[in-house]
Amino acid sequence: TGTVETLEFQSEARQLLQLMIHSIYSNKDIFLRELVSNASDALDKLRLETYRDKDLQAETDNLHIEILLDAEARTLTVRDNGIGMSRDDVVNLIGTIAKSGTADFLRKLKESKESAGQDLIGQFGVGFYASFMVADKVTLVTRRAGTGEGVRWESAGEGTYTIESLSDAPQGTSVTLHLKPADDEDHLYDYTSPWKVREIVKRYSDFITWPVQMAKEGEEGGLETVNSMKALWARAKDEVSDEEYHEFYKHISHDWTDPLETVRMQAEGTFEYQALLFLPSRAPMDLFMRDAKRGVQLYVKRVFIMDDCEALMPNYLRFVKGVVDAQDLSLNVSREILQQDRQIRAIRRRLEKKILSTVKTMMTEDAEKYATFWSEFGRAVKEGLIDDPENREQILEISSFDSTHHADKPTSLRDYVSRMKEGQEHIYYLTGDSRTVIENSPHLEAFRAKGYEVLILTDPVDEMWTEPASGFDGKTFQSVAKGEVDLGDETSEEKKAEYEDLLKWMSATLSDTVKEVRLSSRLTTSPSCIVGDAGDLTPTLEKMYRAMGQ
Ligand code: ADP
Ligand code: MG
Description:
- ATP binds at residues 34, 38, 80, 85, 99-101, 123-128, 173, 335.
- Homodimer.
- Belongs to the heat shock protein 90 family.
- Residues 1-335 are annotated as: A.
- It holds the Pfam family HATPase_c_3.
- Helix content is 35%, strand content 20%.
- The chain is α+β, with helices and mostly antiparallel strands.
- Strands 1-6-5-4-7-3-2-8-9 form a 9-stranded mixed sheet.
- α2 crosses α6, α4 runs antiparallel to α5 (114-124) and α9 packs across α10 (367-381).
- Bound molecules: adenosine-5'-diphosphate (ADP) and magnesium ion.
- Magnesium ion binds at residues 34, 37-38, 127, 254.
């Protein structure tokens, strides 16, 4: 045993801990879900590590999770014999928060009122730190598999923690919570009750594929497994409750909010697999960050193989969470092999189609749900219009856009087309920074006057997909700010002659800045406007390229 060092939590970590200590989250039971979830991840990692590194000196017998209760000492311990942590791991993983979006989250929290904090915690999820909702001190003892040195970490969550080396510690991690004094008015606090703890495990962690064991009642030294360990995707569809699906979702996604939609798939035959997928109800904070997690988990015959399996989900659907369990892959399969694998590509195509059709159904059967989906993920989904020409029509089908038809309700293209006026050939749109800017644009005047609906596109990605636009339902997309827009009432030859001199003079005067000055029918009240050539970049796109230094 070495010397005890006292270290400080990173400042973001400190702020989150304060939130936990003053426990603003109403459902405190979930601390146990988080600890069991971490223990399960640690066992998964150990199994993978032993596949990859045949020389690893690790114990792999009797891998399990154990929960020990001591009513007298008022402690609860969750122990696993998984991968464990080195001293550096403990400092980096437990003493700091590397989760992307943390700074963002804390800023929002500061801006929000006290009561909104609760909701934000639910969105963010705090994992291990949830322990401090119920404990006034936490002790963690761990040893990384294959190494000799153990570590003891302890903290009351108040700014600092202590850390010391141990010469002797079992492989894996044990986390002991010194529970806060029982609150008489609130029996929820009694986390030393075997009955209560068993119930929480059943509720939140039943599907964990490792045994979660507790002392057998009335039998000295005996242990019993509390969870069924049954993979949800291997059970009959109607045998699994929504709540079970939701808890499973939380385990794999590290999200604290219920998913919006659950999707199950099964394929039999030459290449057998099962998939259990979820559409989250909120976009993760890193959805548009470069290092964002993407893809689903891959299992082979019930064995966890990898997280974020990008080969199984196209990038524009990176927010989809879930599990794919394939029967006929090798346990040693690598990311590189997966990218090349023909069958994996086939699975990916089917998953993609299934997600698109699920959203389509949602659109017709539950408009409110669809609206939530679209406002959270629409921006990402539209990337598919550029990345995935093969499914473009289907993606357009499930997309919706702001339009001049309605002040705050987006429209589907189907609905737009059904409202098209006699003689209207194109689907008109205008891109810009905001709805207000677009609505005040002189480009809209003539369209408004004719009663033509115009899509209002304000996402940066809209600049990209409208470019190679092939169209929708046989109608092409046409920017109202570009080229000659034929609104059917050509300016007469007479008028052209009348203004010829003025136009010549203007063209000459403005020759450095514009290509041509011409008479237009697109304006009703504004005297003039600037129009791009059909092949030109739009102003927003020009700005984007300039910002990227091109
Ligand atoms: P998350 O699980 O979302 O990563 P947590 O706060 O729950 O966040 O845990 C932080 C990290 O600490 C984990 O990613 C893991 O690397 C490490 N960790 C936590 N518990 C254990 C454990 N029982 N065994 C090994 N590592 C663990
Ligand atoms: Mg966790």
